[in-house]
Amino acid sequence: MKLPRKRSSARETAKPPADRAKQAALQTGHLAESFVAHWLTAQGWTVLHQRWHCLYGELDVVATQPGTLAFVEVKARSKGNWDENGLLSITPQKQAKLWQAAQLFLAEHPHLADLPCRFDIALLSCKPVRSSVKGSITPNGEVLRTDSQLSLPLAIELGQPVVLDGYELTLQQYIVNAFSEF
Description:
Elements: H1 10-13, H2 17-42, E1 46-54, E2 57-65, E3 68-77, H3 92-108, E4 117-128, E5 162-164, E6 167-179
């Protein structure tokens, strides 16, 4: 005798809210890191790595300019956040992990080890927006850009919002040498 197969309902196959929130946070983080990497490139930097993983965690962006190597920690937060756009989340413990990750990075890339190194922080505000038509203008006069335009020349300016992939991203602050250098 064959038993009927149980069909799964949409409710059973849908991801739990915690999984959806985690996935959305990852997507937002990756988008913010790509946004900052694009901005750094426009500033004359060469981005060597994004999301470089090791035992101690992740280096969001590793970039170089002649004579300097920067490890950039990217923090994207929504309006009304509790930690000053992510700045307070970079605790002494987080800084120690970034140092360890940077040391491992340099051990794996010895040709970069003689460059002066620094830790920078990019603070972004991020909020979801309704999908927009390419080139549409918001009520306050801002031009909306889509994610497909990120690969095109795009002037990202501090404090100026850019809409990408359903999010409005604003590079609020870029802190050079945010904490002790090597």
